[in-house]
């Protein structure tokens, strides 16, 4: 059991504030991923939870107990870092057992836990080796094993896959997800990689300059970003963000993109109708865009507008097309069978049910 409660956690170094009143509630068994660009305060927040650094304000509690002033060793929390920090002179078995020895866990129990962890992480055949005789991925598994053996209330992972090569990262990502499913452990996981965040998390907290921008399920953060920062940060390709002016008219309101490009929003709510002549940012995911074929608009809440093909990038599974709409660029994920060439004029359909509007000034999502 572990419920984590962060209440207005604040951190200053001198007169620089790196965390601004971060409040997060984590239920038992959740996998929270803290994601944000390098330097946004992710590690600082993890260190506050682990007790490796002191907050300048705010409280941290675990299962209803205030642990803000407890030493790291008394928190019942295990942390896995980007650098594996294994003891070079100890075998894999000794490395995994080390925290148990420090806690004076009896030998039999120690052996039982090490065996169990080794089997979970497929390290059985490596127990006698020293870290230098292991690959990067194996070392990272040992570091994770050392955290597991302690059977803590809460696991913290700080960019644990960043030192691994691309294929190994994907494999380890799957393993970590599998581990969470089988242990039902409560995990806080830090990454700057938004794909890792999407694939692993039960909930994502997006951090920017020490301020939480949004906390939500991967689906919410991806489809209903709170602001243009989250929209631009999550997803690959990132959400297209187009400047537009709202105008009223037949079958509207209309969004004017400039250069004569315009889009009617037949289903728009009354709030948008009142925004006539306001500047908005139109957010649309690459996969919510399709080509209009022979004047036929695909079924659903779609609307079409003209665009010029700039660049065509086949990925195998699909085509990423960069297109120009009235001087603004967008990326569309299209069927791999489409034959497109640069300079071609096409009619694009936006799935209006998946279009998100933001206020141009505040950059916040319009309700
Ligand atoms: N001990 C410190 N003294 C001063 N500034 C620090 C210290 N530790 C971290 N910072 C600053 O705090 C900010 C957040 O750092 P960090 O939490 O490591 O970011 P992240 O893990 O998101 O990359 C950075 O601007 C960093 O320079
Ligand atoms: Mg960091």
How many domains would you count in the coordinates?
2
Order of helices and strands: EEEHEEEHHHEHEHEEHHEEEHEEEEEEE
Oligomer: single chain
Rough shape?
Answer: elongated
- The fold-level CATH name of the largest domain is Rossmann fold
Distance between the termini: 36 Å
* CATH architecture tag of the largest domain: 3-Layer(aba) Sandwich
Count of β-strands = 20
Radius of gyration: 25 Å
Structural class, judged by helices and strands? alpha+beta
Helicity level: 10-25%
CATH class of the largest domain, named: Alpha Beta
CATH homologous superfamily descriptor of the largest domain: P-loop containing nucleotide triphosphate hydrolases
Average pLDDT rating: 91
How much of the polypeptide forms β-strand, as a percent range? 25-35%
Which regions are unreliable across 5 or more consecutive residues at pLDDT < 50?
none
Total DSSP helices: 9
| Ligand list | adenosine-5'-diphosphate, magnesium ion
Biggest beta-sheet profile: 6 strands, mixed
């Amino acid at each position: 059991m572990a419920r984590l409660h962060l209440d207005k956690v604040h951190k200053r170094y001198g007169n620089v504030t790196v965390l601004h009143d971060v409040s997060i509630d984590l239920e038992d068994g959740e996998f929270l991923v803290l994601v944000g660009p390098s330097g946004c305060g992710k590690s600082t927040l993890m260190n506050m939870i682990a007790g490796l650094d002191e907050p300048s304000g705010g409280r941290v509690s675990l299962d209803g107990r205030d642990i803000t002033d407890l030493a790291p060793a008394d928190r019942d929390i295990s942390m896995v870092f980007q650098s594996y920090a294994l003891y070079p002179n100890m075998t894999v078995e000794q490395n995994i057992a080390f925290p148990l020895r420090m806690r004076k866990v009896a030998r039999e129990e120690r052996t039982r836990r090490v065996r169990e962890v080794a089997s979970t992480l497929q390290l059985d055949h490596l127990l006698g080796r020293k870290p230098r005789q292991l690959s990067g991925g194996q070392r990272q598994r040992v570091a994770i094993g050392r955290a597991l053996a302690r059977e803590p209330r809460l696991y913290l992972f700080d960019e644990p896959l960043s030192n691994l090569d691309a294929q190994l990262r994907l494999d380890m990502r799957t393993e970590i997800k599998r581990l969470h499913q089988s242990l039902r452990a409560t995990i806080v996981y830090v990454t700057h990689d938004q794909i890792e965040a999407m694939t692993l998390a039960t909930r994502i907290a997006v951090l920017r300059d020490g301020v939480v921008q949004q906390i939500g399920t991967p689906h919410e953060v991806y489809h209903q970003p709170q602001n243009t920062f989250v929209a631009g940060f999550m997803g690959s390709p990132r959400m297209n963000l187009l400047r537009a002016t709202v105008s009223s008219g037949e079958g509207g309101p209309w969004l004017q993109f400039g250069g004569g490009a315009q889009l009617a929003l037949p289903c728009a709510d009354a709030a948008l109708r009142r925004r006539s002549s306001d500047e908005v940012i139109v957010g649309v995911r690459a996969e919510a865009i399709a080509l209009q074929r022979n004047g036929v608009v695909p079924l659903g809440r779609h609307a079409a507008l003209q665009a010029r093909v700039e660049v065509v990038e086949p990925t195998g599974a699909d085509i990423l097309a960069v297109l120009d709409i009235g001087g603004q660029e967008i990326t569309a994920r299209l069927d791999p069978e489409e034959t497109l060439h640069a300079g071609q004029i096409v009619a694009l359909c936006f799935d209006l049910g998946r279009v998100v509007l933001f206020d141009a000034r505040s950059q916040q999502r319009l309700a």
